[in-house]
Amino acid sequence: MPTVEEKKKKEVIRLERESVIPILKPKLIVHLANLIEHSSDRAEFLKLCKRVEYTIRAWYMLQFEDLMQLYSLFDPVHGTQKLEQQNLSSDEIDILEQNFLTYLFQVMEKSNFKIATDDELDVAHSGQYLLNLPITVDESKLDKKVLKKYFEVHPHENLPDFADKYIIFRRGIGIDKTTDYFFMEKVDVIISHFWAWILRVTRLEKVFSRKPTPRQKKDPKKDDETISEEEDDELYVERIRLENMELSFRNLRSKITIQEPTFDRIIVVYRRASSRVNAERGIYVKHFKNIPMADMEIVLPEKKNPSLTPMDWVKFLISAVVGLVAVVGSVEMPKADLWVMFAILSTVIGYCAKIYFTFQQNMATYQNLITQSMYDKQLDSGKGTLLHLCDDVIQQEVKEIIISFFILMEQGKATLEDLDQQCEELIQDEFGESCNFDVDDAVNKLERLGIVSRDSIGRYYCVGLKRANEIIGTTTEELVLKAKQGSAVA
């Protein structure tokens, strides 16, 4: 007979599959090559993979060079000096920064990053993980012009409310687990449940409850909802929180494991507000990894120092007033019960102490998380992030082309839909990974390379391996390698 825990429905977050291929390129190439029966074909396939990568890298080199040249003018560290050396007018600088943002957003899209929407952020913030403080952005310290101007020229769907101040790009989904005693957190949850019971009994629940105003547009695929175990798990990630566990003073001393979905990669883009003396032109690009969804506030720019919320102060005052009234009422009774007075005072003082000490502990946790985000979770910033993105685009494009060509080589002619399905099945069957394969982009690149064509009814087919290598031809990198080898022999 299943236990209560097994029967209990899980809290999950419903997500779309990502287009990024989560397989290292060397592992992908070697594994696919080993699936080819004849050694001669295997050698031709490995040569083709190298030529595809060299060609794709050459295609993007000019675009990436322009991106890096433009960023050098808006680097927060040295960009101001370079702009001064150029002697550019304000209008010319505006044009250049918009060109940089255009290149940047193109690279982000090619690297399968998506702009986080308000609905996705609502889902992320609907739960708590390690960060239990309300974190807000000091908007007065952020520029509100440069991104607003970009989106006026390049409109996007489902832009978040803060899109004029900063943009959060996200990609990939993972899981973060933390096992600990969580002693104070358990006590906090137990006291919160007891406080909620008191509010229900005294009918003060409506005074303290704060229901957020629902947004008019809601994507059902990004909804924080509860589903049964029997439903498909591919698009669902479970969230395990203290608030949903059966807690008691008995299991206060036992370790537990909490779990939260993570954004595998997050990139934040923003500009600081200009002062009256100096016009700020630097554009910040910061790159983070493995950020728990419920703790996503740690990547926000220009965060305000956390403090007790107005609601906490209201709870303080109401608790004190209710306790004072109850004590006075007990004293005025003909037979004052000291135990009742003691219980009331203990409850009120205990709750006020709980608010204060919980805040202090959360502040310490917040400081640790911020420190960790700076040293452990921040991958890079500025130029380093852009270089990483450029290489990431090339790796993804190469993997898409190799997988598509391999399927056509092994399976023969295929429609676009069949090719898409077979590529996803190959990734799942051979590597145990799941992704939403971007077949349109892959086929477009294969046609540009000239190694895939369409027949009269629209089915795609590829040329032979040897012919594919002849069509692409000897690359510059291969000539350089031959020259190096020749000089080494000599």
Automatic annotation (TrEMBL):
InterPro entries found in the cross-reference section: DUF3754 (IPR022227)
Region of interest: Disordered: 210-230
Keyword line: Membrane, Transmembrane, Transmembrane helix
TM ranges: 313-332, 338-357
A Pfam family assignment: DUF3754
Basic and acidic residues composition bias: residue spans: 216-225
Protein name: Aminopeptidase
